[in-house]
Amino acid sequence: MMKKILAAAIVSAFAAPAFAATANVDVYGQFRGSVDFVDADGAANEGRTRVSSNNSRIGFKGAEDLGGGLSAIWQWEYAFQLDQQGATQPQTATDSVGGNSYRNTFVGLSSKTLGALTLGTQESPLKTSTGPLAVFGDTLADYRSVFTKLSTRSDNSILYTSPDMGGLTLQAMYGAQNEAGNGTLSDPTFYALSGVYKNGPLYATLAYQDAKAVSSTNVSSNTKAWRAGVGYTFGNTKLGLAYENNDAESAAGVTTNDGSAWYLSVAHKMGNVTLNAAYTDRDEYTSGANNGAQQYTVGAEYALSKRTGVYALYTKVSNDTNGTNGIGPSTGIATVSTVAGGDASGLSLGVNHSF
Question: Is residue 20 in some structural domain?
Fold first, then answer.
């Protein structure tokens, strides 16, 4: 009996400090599995069925109150695959699987009056500016497939986020990206700015991004973009409109991507059911070639609880004469590739669970 009491006392003595040390840690994530029936022009991609993970992820975050309105904050987030193939890590998005990758992972300080300064791998203010306007995010129909052709997360980044100023929040990011300073892109820099205004049913944003790399021979490549968006909610209906203009030049000074895109979304809630629709139109010309595309998506979600829901959607990408836009590229979701001037489409039935 005495041994049992002593053992319990020892366990309690070690458990209490351990619990106290982790009491401010939140564990969160999403499981986003779906069955996709996809098709595309080109013999290699015609009619197939697959299971997709749609940026399923897990994360840990926490904060420590340092007094005087100042807190230490941190977050670690990672995207994983439900449909793991093989043992190679990490995976990158292909026509077979999505990508395993670090997502928002940072540490920093936050002040109630001065804002937050964080360091790590972080999403660009350009990306987060229009994200709330998307109605099919992290699905086969993610709007980034056609809307943008940009890298929207930076490694080795410093991000400042202002406090809420009457509904207005400002962000500024600098990313060193290749901090080793070697290879063909020896001196890359990444800048991004955004302003987001939220006031009741109104959401408005404006953002800018400039990514530059200088080679060892002092030749630079450069990608610039700006983005604007507005959203409005009236009753059970939410409308969203976003625009992006981008320009990219290679190290040789050749225009590799000169384009613009519009995105329009609508969501209407009826009890546990939400009906969604979205349209994207991209104009893009490179060396006189028409590489644009249009994407059409309709879908419905049914909420089984606050944390679990099921959905069905259909999406199609129709390319202009020389366009090779597929479904999924640069979104972390398994892609559906097509040939120049071809189409890509998919029907997706999924279940989402957040925790």
Answer: no
Q: How many CB atoms lie within 10 A of CB 51?
A: 14
CA end-to-end span of the chain: 41
Establish if 22 belongs to a structural domain. Answer: no
Choice between 262 and 10, residue whose per-residue pLDDT is larger: 262
Q: Would you state the torsion angle of the CA atoms of residues 257, 189, 194, 330, taken in this order, to the nearest 10 degrees?
A: 50
Question: Which residues partner with 313 through β-bridges?
Answer: 299, 348
- Whether the CB-CB separation of 95 and 45 falls below 8 Å is answered with yes
pTM value is 0.84
CB of 122 closer than 8 Å to CB of 78: no
Span 286-301, pLDDT tens digits: 767 788 999 999 999 9
CB 258 within 8 A of CB 247: yes
DSSP-derived letter for residue 78 is E
Distances (CA, A) of 118 to 104, 168, 174: 11, 19, 11
* Angle CA 188–194–329, to nearest 5: 60
Residue 262 is assigned to a structural domain of this protein: yes
- Residue range 264-317, pLDDT digits in tens: 999 999 999 999 999 999 998 776 778 899 999 999 999 999 999 999 999 999
CATH of residue 207's domain is 2.40.160.10
The parent domain of residue 146 ranges over: 33-354
**162 secondary structure, DSSP code:** P
